[in-house]
Fold:
Amino acid sequence: MHVAYSRDTVNKDVGDTRQLFIDDDVIAVVKNVTRRQHTPVKHPANPIIRRDKPWEVTTYFRTSAFNVIKDPVDDLYKCWYEDFYEYFSKGLPSRERLFYAQSTDGLNWEKPALGKHFIDGYDTNAVFNPPVVMKGCPSIMLDPLAQDPSRRFKMVYLNLDTSKRGGAPGGLRLDYSSDGIGWTPHENNPIIPGWKSDVEILTYDEVDDKYVVWGRYGGAAGGSGHPDMDSWFAPVWPGRPEGVWGTRRRIYRLESPDLENWSEPELLWDPDERDNLDDAFYGFVPWRAGEMHLGILNVLHQVDNTMDMYLHYSRDGRKWDRFLEHRPFVPRGGEGSCDQFMAETPNQPLVVGDELWIYYGGMNVHHDWWIMPHDQRP
Structure:
């Protein structure tokens, strides 16, 4: 029996919803057509924000360390970025500050003196400069639901006590702000007590009306207590035999209607047979595009010690597929470039006119630069 295609019986009412021809959902038949993944154009002035102040030490534009947001209230682009001024000092957790920059056009940035923290006699752009307990790995978003103007900005972060080995992570915490500079801790911190990971990305899904945290729930690095795991690397079993757990970095999803009551962690990103033996999933940031979900997966290639970002798509926000070519969305640069070894982002694209701007972090040192020769350190 043969079934013929009929326009009268096979159709989809898309209304005025933008359609992306990433999958075959609205494609009946094509002729002489192919799919290609295009590469964003890097701005010729990159890096547009760099270490250039005497109080900056190891500025970090990483998956877990910076955000860029356009604020409609004052029409400013705002960026928060971490600075590790003591990294793995004396075997204890790093000491870190959070700095702030702003721009009127998103390209030319200033680092305003905020009058909050003086470092070596300088009035700096530091938002946080804590002496002992760090607000580590912050993720900042502008909350579209905020009724209270003093809570427009939300920041989740890992509480780290640098006086204790391992940092004694105190769960995932939440702060509020009206302008992104002055912050107030949430009254019921920690919002996720069991959180111990050093990568978290906070988003809001306007269709499902849920706040979502993406991150490595429950542990740092690979999250494994395997006896053969050294400080940074662990054995990998591609076939996943019974009784053996995952040792590579993987990503969980938690959702909440109010930032206080959270779902159980759901494992959505786990390296499998399609990934290289050393690939580890570092962080993930999704966004809505028409009726689809798009997202960037930041991947650590552990042997080469480099980072790349890959574009993925989904219909339901749970089952994610690769693009056909599965190549880095924003490729790393060549030798001597500012993004030679790492290119990654925790940011959703910003719509600027008829363009999408993707703010990403580039590094000309390896991921584990502190265990590399001194001439390969920042």
